[in-house]
Amino acid sequence: MIRTEKLYKSYLCHTRHEVCAIQDISLHISKNSFVVLHGPSGSGKTTLLNIIGTLDRPTNGKVFMSGEDITSFSDIALSRLRREKIGFIFQDFHLIPRLTSWENVTYPLIPLGISLKKRFERAKILLEKMELGDRLDHSPEELSGGQQQRVAIARALVNNPELIIADEPTSNIDDETCAHVLEYLTELKSGGATILVATHDVHFGKIADVVYKMKNGRIE
Q1: Nearest CA among 197, 114, 116 for reference residue 159
Q2: What angle (nearest 5°) sits at the alpha carbon of residue 32, between those of residues 25 and 34?
Q3: Which of 19, 69, 151, 197 could tie 166 with a disulfide, CB 3.0–4.6 Å?
Q4: Any idea what the Cα angle at residue 186 is, between residues 125 and 102, rounded to 5°?
Q5: Which whole-number Å values give the CA distances from 39 to 64, 108, 219, 220, in the listed order?
Q6: HEC letters along 152-183
């Protein structure tokens, strides 16, 4: 499903020195596989996720999705691709404070023109699956960290994505919720999704099909 060719990403810091985040990364991610990027903080995991997830562009190199070179896509085309095919689970949840749980879950559906009633029905099904059926109208500040993460997972699933990208999805939650997250992701793979996770949590290695170890911006 995903193929990268010699990806390189660098940034100019305030001293105008170039900082290399990732370099010479070529990898393959098969459809319906569970792939883990494992490594310490600063190893380039998040940068690589952002490029594969089209949130950022590489300095050099290419990313292919289902055979198409998506690095050549316009910003509008990449936005459409994210909306239709990719679900994101972020480390810090990124829920919108003024929205309720169900509104946060269905926010990505608004540009698709789906009616309010259908958005609510879809959110209700997902949040009940996440054992949050009694938290539909709660704001993020009324939820625990683990509950916020489950809302974030429901949001990632609301568009039935082919690819789910998760950046350190268990770093800010308790052990019990962590076990649930692992269970949810395994179920999603069984349902046909492709999972890509960046983490330093060794538990993911036990359920992954492939583990890429990263260090200093490279895959070892």
Answers
A1: 114
A2: 60
A3: 197
A4: 25
A5: 24, 30, 9, 10
A6: HHHHHHCCCCCEEEEECCCCCCCHHHHHHHHH
**Distances from the Cα of 24 to the Cαs of 60, 61, 103, 123, 218, in angstroms?**
9, 8, 40, 40, 7
Element (H, E) at 195: strand 194-199
Q: Which two tokens stand for residue 167?
A: 């950046």
Please identify which residue in the block is written with the tokens 């950046």: 167
- Helical segments of the chain, H only: 45-52, 75-85, 101-106, 116-129, 145-157, 175-190
Predicted confidence (pLDDT) per residue in 38-86, tens digit: 988 889 999 999 999 999 999 999 999 999 999 999 999 999 999 889 9
Residue with tokens 């949130």: 55
* CB proximity list for 12: less than 8 A, separation 6 or greater: 18, 19
Question: Per the structure block, which two tokens stand in for 164?
Answer: 């789910």
- Cβ-count burial of 43 within 10 angstroms (0-12 exposed, 13-18 middle, 19+ buried)? buried
Locus of tokens 């170890």:
213
pLDDT band for position 15 (50/70/90)? Answer: low
State pTM to two decimals: 0.89
Measured CA to CA in angstroms, residue 111 lies from 83, 94, 103, 115, 136 at distances of 9, 18, 13, 11, 21
Pick from 87, 102, 68: which is nearest to 166 by CA? 87
Chain segment 92-138, per-residue pLDDT in tens: 889 999 999 999 999 988 888 899 999 999 999 999 988 899 999 99
